[in-house]
């Protein structure tokens, strides 16, 4: 079967599914998303884009934004980032505060909320929130080769109004001197980065800089691309990262909007969207879809 036939087949299989997981409700603006949405797109290193279902419908990328902010932060301050954030899977929920006290305010990795808030603090270093967000959006637009990518302010404000957990994390980080700005400022930026919207097509295209193949947008060094992929496979799905690596065998980053960005090093970037989540906050059908795609395409980083 061709890639397009495989995508169409996966889409057909997902359409009638009733067990779709639960849409995130802790961000009120996300609670009204139609759980039956499903999109899938693949951008290949040879310049093709394939898609199926709602692949043209923009959705809230949420924590997938952490891949782009990490890329920016590494580009800005390089390895000194690792003085403020670790590189180990947390084995805890994405918004957990448990380890932060025991580990003196150094978050386990840049993809759990605490770590991502520190990364956002880094990209804010010499700019205002508006400038940092403009830089981030421009980075993503360049990566996707598409100017039509925006932040949904209503989603950002909705999360700000209910984001007590993230405020707790930010204040805790600040108490350990691991936040250089006022929590309000860093979190305002963080909520807006999470509220970026992209379709599966746009997201797959935006992910091409992580493929490490000739002809792909070159936004950070090859070495950094490898390292970000390593963090995606070990930490990209929080306390379900081991399970994702086992089932899919590829680096991936999920978001509570129901999207997942998956990288097939040297070959392709894949984006999937199904808003229903597992208990760990990862897209239920999205994970199944990329598992099926990887199996049928014989894609794995494990040979
Ligand atoms: N896992 C996620 O997508 C979480 C992102 C969300 N904006 C939060 O901070 O809670």
UniProtKB/TrEMBL annotation:
Signal peptide: none annotated. Keywords: Acetylation, Hydrolase. One of its GO terms (biological process) is L-glutamine catabolic process. Homotetramer. The gene is glsA. Its EC number is 3.5.1.2. Pfam families: Glutaminase. Gene3D superfamilies: DD-peptidase/beta-lactamase superfamily (3.40.710.10). This is Glutaminase. The lineage of its organism: Bacteria, Pseudomonadati, Thermodesulfobacteriota, Desulfuromonadia, Geobacterales. Substrate binds at residues 63, 113, 159, 166, 190, 238, 256. InterPro entries: Beta-lactam/transpept-like (IPR012338), Glutaminase (IPR015868). SUPFAM superfamilies: beta-lactamase/transpeptidase-like. One of its GO terms (molecular function) is glutaminase activity. Belongs to the glutaminase family. It catalyses: L-glutamine + H2O = L-glutamate + NH4(+). Transmembrane segments: none annotated.
